[in-house]
């Protein structure tokens, strides 16, 4: 995924499915470096991880 699409997803009111390593995640924020994002797994666990945005997939 690229920075432009991450920003679009963050500003969208629609629920857009994003996966990281095959797991469904929510994007919490784009980090200041513009190359990583903070995400957490969908579901009851709120554990957050910093991941490279190029590893995020839509759909």
Task: Compose a concise summary of this entry.
The protein has a five-stranded antiparallel beta sheet. Strand 1 and strand 2 form a beta hairpin. The protein has one helix and five strands.
Largest beta sheet: strand ordering: 4-3-2-1-5
Distance between the termini: 11 Å
Order of helices and strands: HEEEEE
Report the radius of gyration as a whole number of Å. 10 Å
Architecture per CATH nomenclature, i.e. the level-2 architecture: Roll
Overall 3D form:
globular
Subunit organisation of the chains:
single chain
Structure class: alpha+beta
Question: Main sheet, how many strands, which sense, barrel?
Answer: 5 strands, antiparallel
Q: What's the domain count?
A: 1
Number of strands: 5
CATH fold descriptor: SH3 type barrels
CATH class: Mainly Beta
Strand content: 35-45%
Low-confidence stretches: none
Helical residue percent band: 10-25%
């Amino acid at each position: 995924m690229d920075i432009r699409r991450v920003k679009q997803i963050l500003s969208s009111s629609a629920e857009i499915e994003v996966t990281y390593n095959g797991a469904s995640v929510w994007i919490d924020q784009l980090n200041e470096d513009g190359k990583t994002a903070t995400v957490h797994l969908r579901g009851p666990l709120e554990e957050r991880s910093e991941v490279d945005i190029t590893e995020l997939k839509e759909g």
